[in-house]
Design a protein that fits this description.
Blueprint: H1 3-16, H2 21-35, H3 39-43, H4 45-50, H5 56-66, H6 72-81, E1 95-96, H7 110-119, E2 124-127, H8 142-152, E3 161-169, H9 180-185, E4 188-192, H10 201-212, E5 219-220, H11 242-252, E6 255-259, H12 269-278, E7 281-285, H13 297-306, H14 320-327
Parallel strand pairs: 1-2, 2-3, 3-4, 4-5, 5-6, 6-7
């Protein structure tokens, strides 16, 4: 087995299971080292072991791969991962409107996110790093977002399009945490609540409705903010008038995100049903913070299918021209 392929697949599987970011990063670092080495340099085990970025575990993986074996650690991860969740809806998904890179709190470069999206067969991916107020996530200032959009502009081709976007924080009064001129310049705006999640239900409703009615909002991200499992612990959902929020979404053509991260499962099934009744559109998104997490959309597809969401109301099943028409709609 090729050592570079083995290291990369291990990193991808660790990312998908939301393992320690340091663990997955160690394998990506080792992969970067291996990518620069010749066959002779890889065969020089004494020097290889001393190279920066190669640790005990990654060295063992490289040696096992060079010996023509599937590395034991990779075999264990493959067995633990099992088959991906299957649904009739998953093959209909053409892209993803919510992911992060190391420009904010993602683990890897934009290039690696794009490579992973291409391997999944995506037609498009929206890069939606965080906005300025989310300093804990290294949110993008106006100047940094402008620089990122220039990078994004050169990363499409060969049947794949990288869309420029932002996951913008919904401020306490419902305003969006970025300059309007930049919200108009990006392709996709995902608006999400990240602070004061325990706000009074009446105030939270007004906050979310105001954000949905903003002329640049396209997707309402992980609407309840809940956490149901995982290393960050659990968190109850925010309280708000879901019918009022979803009515505003339907009126403005804003898609309700079905967040595919297993620790979120947001919205809950009962709120997906209410959004359906309200006539909302939906967007099945990975909210990926690493390349291996882009495949988590199989979780979202399974939930959407189980909840009876029709494919035609899921914007991420649409081909790019139709998606662009929706993003450019009259507000």
């Amino acid at each position: 087995m090729d050592p570079l392929d083995a290291l990369t697949e291990i990193a991808t599987l660790l990312e998908r299971e939301r393992s320690s970011r340091y663990k997955s990063k160690a394998f990506r670092t080792a992969a970067d080292v291996v990518a620069t080495l010749s066959a002779d340099e890889l065969a020089d085990t004494a020097r290889l072991r001393r190279r920066p970025g190669i640790g005990d575990t990654t060295f063992r993986v490289i040696q096992e791969a060079l010996a023509g074996e599937v590395p034991g650690y990779l075999a264990e991860l493959r067995a633990a991962a099992g088959a991906l969740r299957e649904s009739a809806l998953r093959p209909l998904l053409r892209g993803d409107l919510h992911c992060h890179s190391d420009w904010s709190d993602g683990l890897t470069s934009i290039e690696l996110m794009v490579d992973a999206a291409r391997r999944l067969g995506h037609e498009y991916l929206a890069l939606t790093d965080h906005s300025p107020r989310l300093t804990v996530a290294n949110g993008l200032s106006a100047e940094r977002l402008e620089r990122q959009l220039a990078v994004v502009a050169g990363m499409s081709g060969g049947g794949f399009t990288l869309l420029g976007g932002i996951e913008v924080d919904i401020l306490d009064d419902g305003a969006l945490d970025q300059e309007d001129r930049l919200l108009a310049a990006v392709d996709v705006v995902v608006a999400s609540v990240h602070s004061k999640l325990r706000m009074d239900a009446r105030d939270m409703t007004a906050r979310m409705v105001a954000a949905v009615r903003h002329p640049h909002t396209d997707v309402l991200g992980h609407c309840t903010g809940r956490l149901v499992e995982g290393s960050r612990g659990t968190r109850p959902p925010s309280q708000f008038d879901a019918d009022a929020v979803f009515e505003a979404c339907a009126q403005r053509g804003v898609a309700v995100e079905i967040n595919s991260r297993p620790e979120r499962q947001d919205p809950p099934d009962e709120l997906i049903a209410r959004a359906l009744d309200a006539g909302c559109l939906f967007s099945i998104d990975s909210d990926a913070h690493a390349p291996g997490q882009l495949s988590l959309i199989d979780h979202g597809a399974e939930r959407a299918e189980r909840c009876g969401v029709p494919a035609e109301r899921i914007v991420t099943t649409w081909p790019l021209p139709r998606l662009r028409d929706w993003l450019d709609r009259e507000r």
